[in-house]
Amino acid sequence: MEYRRLYNGVRMPILGYGVYQIDSPQTERCVLDAIDCGYRLIDTAQAYGNEEGVGSAVAKSGVPRDELFITSKVWVTNFGEGNTMRSIDESLRRLGTDYLDLMLLHQAYGDYYGAYRDLEKAYEQGKVRAIGVSNFDFNRILDLSTFARIKPMVNQVETHVYWQQRQNHQVMEDLDIAHEAWSPFAEGANGFFRDPILTAISQGHGKTVAQVALRYLMDLGVIVIPKSVHKERMEQNFDVFDFELTDEDRDRIARMDADKSVVLDHRDPKTVAWLMGLFANEPKQA
Asked: Mind telling me which residues the site (Lowers pKa of active site Tyr) is annotated on (predicted)?
């Protein structure tokens, strides 16, 4: 396993397993399979509704808790000083653990400053080993990093070969904030798994398109959390530590960057309006 050392010294696996859109009944089985394949970073969120499944799998896995890296995220309806701390405590209960390795704010909306103050308190109290954000563009990252007491340690954003987040990545690197990718396979958009460039490169290495895409992001220092409900695919996605891309490979993939979202564009007014509707109508998650 390769690791990214966060600026506070915590070591975070550069490859993990995400459980977004896995329903609660399947989560325990999937996480147990992932841990059996060698994954030690497991990424969930309050909004996914499957924290309990993750916690159950962790308890049944037989792997010591300190060998696992568990991430969750606070949903926007739980933002606000006091509310966020209560939701963190509830996440800990659902996950069956007395600490999280990383807690993120899920979106850059609502009272994220009040929520972040609770993250800082949770960090100082030892409830979380690292804190950060998700879906924060470079301007929000610069804002929060300038005025918060404790700078974010991680920012998790949509990142894949079609949107490589170069500007945001550079800002994160300048601030020593780890860049984590959600949807590293672009949710299959643009014919991802049949892409001719990725296919040609993968054939040259005897690897899959998915393995090449993960290796490319990891070479940039990006943490990746691919998801699959099939153990065979989990094993394939984990088998990325025994080959290297050439400079020519990396140059070809770099040119695939269209610098725009293909999954959920937080800069699109229609997307933002849809999210606002969700936030207004959803009950608190915790």
From this structure: 73
Q: What are phi and psi of 33, to 5 degrees?
A: -65, -45
Give catalytic status of residue 17 as yes or no. no
The binding site consists of 106
Annotated binding site for substrate: 106
**Amino acid type, 231:** K
With beta carbons less than 8 A apart as the criterion, state whether 108 and 155 touch.
Answer: no
Domain assignment of residue 90, yes or no = yes
Indicate whether 132 belongs to any domain. Answer: yes
User: Consecutive sets of 10 residues in the chain, 286 residues long: mean pLDDT of each?
Assistant: 97 98 93 98 97 97 97 97 98 98 96 98 98 97 96 98 97 98 97 98 98 98 97 98 98 97 89 84 60
Domain count, the chain: 1
133 forms beta bridges with 105, 155
